[in-house]
Write a structure and sequence with these properties.
By secondary structure, this protein is mostly helical. 69% of the residues lie in helices and 0% in strands. Helix 7 packs across helix 8.
Length: 269
């Protein structure tokens, strides 16, 4: 037999022994014989309750036991809609400001003074008036007009912004075409510059008569010279184009002047 089976056998035997002992110890015989007849009609139908004393401490302790929420007395009073404290606990509970707050929240029963104490004093009224005059110098009508003016200006600003956006959206296709034209022009310029540089490189290599490295000092010197000459040629071409443009403009102005003189001469005196 294995050790585990031996242990299970001992445990089951001990459990049975404990159950038997418990049954014999706690088993009690009925005080009345089983065949006794009980008269049900003789039983009193009125329930019997224990008498509750009129002691305030007893009622206070009973209410404390009945409060299963575990809230404090102040929090429970707030939950029930009554004043938190029956007697002042903190120094500010005696102030007029706190009593006004209790009066506004829980009514006249929450304060022990007449409601007239909540009215401000003449000094306080004057202070309020001074504050109103400084903080809000405009009357209600003036403030209303100011708000209407601000609203109108805001609406006009929104309309102007929407009109500007609409105008820009209408010009979107034009701007897109202009941008594409600028990009194409820039790409063409870059391509022309690349071709021109390749042409200069070929001219430099032809000048030396053999294939030379672009990192050679001679090549760099000749390349710089060729680029300088190319820039000079471009400058001269631009200058010539400008001169031709000015000449054409002068000829056009001269022709217009001659036409005006002829027209003046043809007019009858």
């Amino acid at each position: 037999m294995s050790l585990k089976r031996i242990c299970d056998f001992i445990i089951r035997r001990n459990v049975r022994f404990q159950c038997i002992v418990a049954e014999r110890c706690f088993a009690t015989e009925s005080a009345k014989p089983k065949d006794e007849i009980v008269d049900i009609t003789a039983a009193d139908e009125k329930p019997m309750y224990p008498e509750i004393p009129d002691d305030p401490e007893f009622h206070k302790e009973l209410a404390k036991k009945q409060n299963k929420s575990r809230l404090t007395e102040a929090h429970r009073n707030i939950l029930m809609g009554v004043r938190p404290y029956e007697q002042p606990v903190e120094w500010y509970h005696k102030t007029v400001r706190y009593k006004r707050r209790m009066l506004g929240r829980y009514g006249l029963k929450s304060v022990d003074e007449p409601a007239g104490f909540a009215w401000p004093l003449l000094k306080e009224v004057k202070e309020y008036q001074d504050y109103e005059r400084i903080a809000f110098p405009l009357s209600i009508q003036e403030r209303w007009k100011k708000l209407e003016e601000e609203k109108r200006l805001k609406a006009e600003k929104i309309q102007a912004r929407e009109a500007e956006i609409t105008e820009k959206l209408a010009k979107m296709n034009q701007w897109t075409a202009e941008l594409n034209a600028k990009i194409a022009k820039k790409e063409a310029e870059l391509e022309n510059a690349r071709i021109r540089k390749e042409k200069i490189v070929e001219e430099v290599r032809k000048h030396f008569g053999f294939k030379i490295s672009v990192h050679d000092e001679k090549f760099k010197t000749m390349m710089a010279q060729k680029e300088k000459e190319d820039k000079k040629k471009k400058k001269e071409a631009k200058k010539q184009a400008k001169l031709e443009k000015i000449t054409k403009l002068a000829e056009k102005i001269n022709d217009q002047s001659n036409e005006e003189q002829v027209t003046e001469l043809k007019k009858p005196e």
